[in-house]
Specification:
16-stranded mixed beta sheet; 20 strands; globular; 19 helices; transmembrane; Endonuclease, Chain A; about 20% strand; PLipase_D/transphosphatidylase; EC 2.7.8.-
């Protein structure tokens, strides 16, 4: 019996030494190229739960995609810049303040896309009407249709859209479609979805597929979160809507009677070429087929009420500079009078938190629109962990009533008040760390036009049915609510 004791003690020492070495290595390895909040989150997990923390770190700590995907994105950035090199940063006939010019120049530098004109042909804030309108435009297609939408499910609501794709194919139109494999996986009909697309003649691929048996592997929580539709290169849609019933079909959502609130915007003009270019890069990445995308023509805006100066803002792991975070922060810092932020998941990094609170201290009225009850437990509590600091700075927090999920995402600064100084952005990107570093997102920056006022007015409509949180009310929440919020806040930093 005593002979076993030295062996037991020996193995204890071995395990202790391994754990100590791992922790010492983590101190020097984990912070490399990572924000302090993210590094601290991973170090806490590794130090307190090494058996779980180390495998999770090795599996999920890197936002770097495969070498092939990274190479394609870098080559695409060069191609986009070269094909649009002769275009100025924005139409020469439009005047902007120096601040707006600098933000447009920033995005051009980070993504290669200039600001061009786009005509607002429809501001679709009704969920079912948006899907029906997209189907109507597909029914007008003569040459091709490009669909890139994160979540897709063939159900009673989306039937009208997929049947329009079927009719397009029957007319000889080429239909290409992308959807995220993991994003769509849990929804009814997923296993038969690809087969149904094939049956109606749609050329389709999943985005960011996990297929280790084909040596296709990557960080499993990376997502292509984009929502884009392009028809014949003349009409485009961009926004936050997934192609699925607004109740999202799965048991917990149905039980809670959740209904999603979203926005899609219909555009024509040169901006459609920018949407098409984003699709073309993702299509080539997944299929290997190169699509011919030309430089946008007709750069100068027409003198009409619905003309907008807009700029494509793609982002994701292929962009190492987090362009959406930088542009969002620039717009927030740019606000002088009013700032409206609408996001289902508002989990800012340090820079954005400082930008928002600083705006309040400068005297800007800041309205933050969020859901009363988010559709994800961890996100709901991580988001609410920031409310104390926001309320103390003077942010007006508005909760859209449950069971609705406010899924629209936009930022708008100084609409209708500052002439050439108003700016905004909308699309698929949330204002959270996942959207800044892990998700492929599609966002449109708006520097001029009626979209700015429409975004602001939509925020006012949302506010009219929402409940505002006061600091006094928030201070009355219990200990366990604070405790859970703060734990979930830590998990949001694990990027």
């Amino acid at each position: 019996m005593n002979a076993l004791i030295p062996d037991f003690t020996f193995w204890q020492w071995i395990l202790f030494t391994i754990e100590l070495v791992v922790k010492i290595l983590a101190l020097g390895v984990v912070p490399d190229g990572r924000k302090p909040s993210a590094a601290n989150g991973w170090l806490l997990l590794i130090f307190f739960l090494p058996l779980a923390g180390v495998p999770l770190y090795l599996l999920m700590s890197s936002s770097f995609v495969s070498a092939r995907r990274h190479r394609i994105q870098q080559e695409a950035n060069v191609m986009i810049s070269d094909r649009q090199a002769d275009l100025p940063n924005y139409p020469g006939s439009v005047e902007f303040s120096a601040e707006v010019e600098s933000i447009l120049s920033l995005n051009r530098k980070l993504t290669g896309f200039p600001a061009v004109t786009g005509h607002n042909k429809g501001f679709w804030a009704d969920y079912d009407m948006a899907i029906r309108r997209m189907a109507e435009v597909v029914d007008s297609a003569e040459k091709y249709v490009y669909v890139e939408i994160y979540i897709q499910a063939w159900d009673e609501t989306t039937e009208v859209f997929y049947r329009s794709l079927e009719r397009a194919v029957q007319r000889g139109v080429q239909v290409r479609l992308l959807y995220d494999q993991i994003g769509s996986l849990k929804y009814p009909g997923f296993l038969k979805l690809g087969k149904r697309f094939t049956e109606i003649g749609v050329d389709w691929h999943t985005m960011l597929p996990l297929a280790p048996w084909r040596f296709r592997f990557r960080r499993p929580d990376l997502r292509n979160h984009r929502k884009i539709l392009v028809v014949d290169g003349r009409v485009g849609f961009i926004g936050s809507l997934n192609m699925i019933d607004r109740g999202y079909l799965v048991r917990n959502h149905v039980r809670a009677s959740r209904q999603w609130i979203d926005l899609m915007v219909e555009l024509t003009g040169p901006i459609v070429t920018s949407l098409e270019a984003v699709f073309a890069v993702d299509w080539y990445t997944e299929s290997g087929e190169a699509l011919d995308i030309s430089a946008p023509a007709d750069h100068e805006p027409e003198v009409t009420d619905d003309v907008n100066v807009v700029q494509m803002l793609p982002s994701g792991p292929g962009y190492t500079t987090e362009p959406n975070l930088r542009v969002f922060n620039s717009i927030i810092h740019h606000a002088k009078e009013r700032l409206t932020i609408c996001s289902p998941y508002f989990i800012p990094d340090e820079a954005m938190m400082e930008a928002v609170t600083t705006a309040c201290y400068r005297g800007v009225r800041v309205d933050l629109l969020v859901s009363e009850q988010a559709d994800q437990f961890m996100v709901h509590h991580a988001q609410s962990s920031y409310y104390q600091q926001l309320l103390e700075a003077g942010v007006n927090i508005w909760q859209f009533p449950a069971p609705y999920v406010l899924h629209t995402k936009f930022v708008v600064a100084d609409p209708g008040e500052s002439g050439n100084d108003a700016m905004g952005a909308f699309g698929s990107s949330n204002l959270d760390m996942r959207s800044f570093g892990l998700n492929y997102e599609s966002t449109l920056v708006v520097a001029k036009g009626n979209l700015l006022d429409q975004l602001y007015e939509l925020g006012e409509i949302y506010k009219s049915v929402s409940c505002r949180i006061t600091l006094m009310q928030w201070n009355q929440r219990g200990f366990w609510r604070r405790y859970i919020d703060n734990i979930m806040r830590l998990t949001s930093a694990l990027q």
